[in-house]
Amino acid sequence: MSVAARRAEGRALRATTSRLALGELAARPENYDPVSRLIWAERGGRADLLAIRYQRMLASPHAFYRGAALLMAEDLARGPSSPLDVQLSGDAHLSNFGVFASPERRLVFDLNDFDETAPGPFEWDVKRLAASVAIVGQALGLSKRRRREATRVVAREYQRSMAKLAMLSRLDAWYLAFDVSSLNRDLRGFFRDDTLERADTLLRSLKSVSRTRAYRRLVAVSDAGPRLRSRPPHLMPESELGDDGALVRRTVDVVLASYPTSLVSDRAALLKQFTPVDVARQVVGVGSVGRECYLVLLTGRDENDLFILQVKEARSSVVSLARGVDGVDPGERVVEGQRFLQARPDPFLGWHTLENAGGPTSFYVRQLYDHKASVDLTRLSAKNLRAYARACAWALARAHARSAESARIAGYLGANENFAEAVADFAEAYRRRNLADFKALAQAAREGRVPTLP
């Protein structure tokens, strides 16, 4: 089929779900309790870490939003959706984009969190990104009008980018990346010059965390050689875990021995050149607190040749749970989703599932800190927020275009303002709902329904 024919198919799908209908935020069932849903979502997690999770969520409405992906997925599932499915990020908020080193050692800007990736309607990611812009905009003190301008930017940039991506060949769309060092050269056809200049300035100002710098913070040299530092409760080496230490080490050893089968053969051969020397339990993020997560320190050529892997538990995606279509191995889902969506995925990204007496536990493995950097959202001006939102929307459109639905999505979206207005309506409505849920969690913490730190 020609691009024009695919676009026509997309336009015809407006009869199924209009673009303006996407602006509706569905009402919740009677007696719906967001706090109870959050507690349910943490079933099976580490109870001793839940206080950290809730404390982090209570830091701000956006921190809460980051930890409440299930609530939004369920809200989206209750409302109108387009019939155009792609591989979703599942959690495409502003803090889940950033700069990192590609395997070719170039700095790229892209999505960087895939715990919730799953197939779903393309606009779910767009709405989650736009709602995070509205929430951050409120934290920055922006007026309702300026917040709306910023959320409309997300939708318009996604719309324009998808139309341009639809005209690229399959291979050109697949290999396209947001290369920070060649931003003005490679993306001039996508952004206006003023947007390019502002995004270029913003992203170049980031100070990426090099592997060497990050490792100095995490690794100490002892008589026994390099070892992971102790920073309880956020980082606890196996030697400090008591009876759990031996279990943690056995778990990590089994995963590291088996997960290379999910790698390309040359990466597996390279990994064999490293030797694990220490393991620690790690507490990370907001939504991930409560899941098992370990750091593994390895040495290569000698004790000065260090490498750190992160082994992280994977669970069912909130997108799949909300849609009632769960069933894929969680670790494999995360890895395959990241490989599909990211332009330059981590070459050491893989998975393994342990079969335990109580049921399977799935893990995925990745490098830790490879020149990673992210934007400090609390210091953005209104103009920089819009520039950053455009960059994120472009990266999201590029990721979705890999699903080969770009022409149909472009046809569905069209060129007028209907989609942008609908997304802006939804984002503002969800900002209000998120704030109400945030206050409900704060009240639950005061009442002792959820644990918090002293």
What does this structure look like?
The chain contains 18 helices and 13 strands. By secondary structure, it is α+β, with helices and mostly antiparallel strands. It has two domains: 3-208 and 380-447, no CATH class; 223-367, no CATH class. The strands form four sheets. Strands 8-9-10-11-13-12 form a six-stranded antiparallel beta sheet. Strands 2-3-5 form a three-stranded antiparallel beta sheet. Strand 2 (97-101) and strand 3 (107-111) form a beta hairpin. The chain is globular. The termini are far apart. The mean pLDDT is 89.
Radius of gyration over all CA atoms, rounded: 22 Å
Measured by DSSP, the beta-strand proportion falls in 15-25%
End-to-end separation? 62 Å
Sheet with most strands: 6 strands, antiparallel
How many domains comprise the coordinates?
2
The neighbouring-strand order within the major sheet is: 8-9-10-11-13-12
pLDDT < 50 stretches: none
| Average of the residue pLDDT scores | 89
SS-derived structural category: alpha+beta
| Coarse morphology | globular
Please supply descriptive tags for the structure shown above.
globular; alpha+beta; six-stranded antiparallel β-sheet; 454 residues; three-stranded antiparallel β-sheet; 47% helix
In short:
The chain is of the alpha+beta class. The protein has 18 helices and 13 strands. 47% of the residues lie in helices and 16% in strands.
Show the helix and strand layout:
Layout: H1 3-12, H2 34-41, H3 50-57, H4 61-67, H5 69-78, E1 85-88, E2 97-101, E3 107-111, E4 118-121, H6 122-139, H7 144-165, H8 170-175, E5 178-179, H9 183-186, H10 193-204, H11 211-218, E6 219-222, E7 225-228, E8 235-237, H12 243-258, H13 265-271, E9 275-282, E10 293-299, E11 306-314, H14 318-323, H15 330-341, E12 350-356, E13 359-367, H16 382-401, H17 406-413, H18 418-447
Antiparallel strand pairs: 1-4, 2-3, 3-5, 6-7, 8-9, 9-10, 10-11, 11-13, 12-13
Helix pairs in contact: 1-17, 3-4, 6-7, 6-16, 6-18, 7-16, 7-17, 7-18, 10-16
